[in-house]
Amino acid sequence: MDCDIAVIGGTGLYGADWIEGPDEVTLGTPYGAVTLVRGRCAGRAVAFLPRHGSGHTVPPHRIPYRANLWALGRLGVRRVFATAACGSLREALAPGSLALCDQFLDWTRGRPSTFFDGEDGVVRHTDMTEPYCPELRGLLAAAARDLGLALAPRATYVCTEGPRFETPAEIRAYASLGGDLVGMTGVPEVVLAREAGLCYASVAIATNYAAGLAGRPLDHSEVVAAMTSSMAAVRRLLVATIQRLDRAPCASCPPAPGPLRPGPADGASGPPAG
Ligand code: HPA
């Protein structure tokens, strides 16, 4: 069964209980094997991949981003919805707020972050003018309106390396650069999706005010608790958006700038569709 829609679940979204007929599959990729769940949602074939693993055992800097996106491409996925727990840099985005990322600032370091590593002798640069698919963002916004859910239509996502939280000085710097929310996993996920020519949208959930803004130390259990209380709304939003998706190709996102070439150790066939 080919799936053209995928959901990548962040902190708090691990279970596949919103998918009918879940079926776990493991796919080989040039970057390692990936286990994910396939099934149906709102009458459509979907794939679900909890990025931290189903028991939240994989920290942000060890997530196999390239393997994950490659595996989704092998399944035939064209559209990816992601969720992302975030610290808020803005008073107006109080904990519990939902927002659609529309830009990012990349403060990660040392993560493998491209399919185009030049091993095939070809230099490729990928346009990032609209990293997050405008059509998917529009559908999410429309679904949120129908459901009566507050969803900020734009947010600049700052991605840090983690796994530590930020210092208050870093948060002040990110806010002055235009960041609205801070998380640890959105990059390179969105970059790899664009390189593969996949539409990608990220629903950010503000789980806490970022370091220095809440007047007390941060704690991961606070993030998990806030995500747990937002999860029902996020799932409703995803299901209502998937219901609205038509099958026509996206008219907004540019195709991949070139074929994705596996390295010499590749045992897998069928790279993500470009
Ligand atoms: N910083 C980074 N990542 C996060 C935060 C934060 O404050 N909250 C949830 N994910």
| Sequence of secondary-structure elements | EEEEHEEHEHEHEH
Mean pLDDT: 92
**What oligomerization state is this entry in?**
single chain
Unreliably modeled segments: 263-274
Architecture in CATH? 3-Layer(aba) Sandwich
Number-wise, the strands total 9
Q: Please name the fourth-level CATH homologous superfamily.
A: Nucleoside phosphorylase domain
Could you give the distance between the termini?
19 Å
Strand order of the largest sheet: 5-8-7-6-9
Helix content: 25-40%
Give the ligands present: hypoxanthine
CATH class group: Alpha Beta
- How many domains make up the coordinates? 1
Characterize the structure shown.
- The chain has 274 residues and is an alpha/beta fold.
- It is built from 5 helices and 9 strands, in the order E-E-E-E-H-E-E-H-E-H-E-H-E-H.
- The chain starts with a strand and ends in a 30-residue tail after the last helix.
- Helix content is 25%, strand content 26%.
- It has a 5-stranded mixed barrel.
- It binds hypoxanthine.
Layout of SSEs?
Blueprint: E1 5-9, E2 20-27, E3 34-41, E4 44-50, H1 65-75, E5 79-88, E6 98-107, H2 134-147, E7 152-160, H3 168-176, E8 181-183, H4 186-195, E9 199-209, H5 220-244
Parallel strand pairs: 1-4, 1-5, 5-9, 6-7, 7-8
Antiparallel strand pairs: 2-3, 3-4, 5-8, 6-9
Helix pairs in contact: 2-5
The protein binds hypoxanthine.
Compact overview of the structure:
By secondary structure, the protein is an alpha/beta fold. It is built from five helices and nine strands.
What are the salient characteristics of this protein?
274 residues; alpha/beta; Rossmann fold; five-stranded mixed barrel; 9 strands; 25% helix; 26% strand; disordered C terminus; binds hypoxanthine
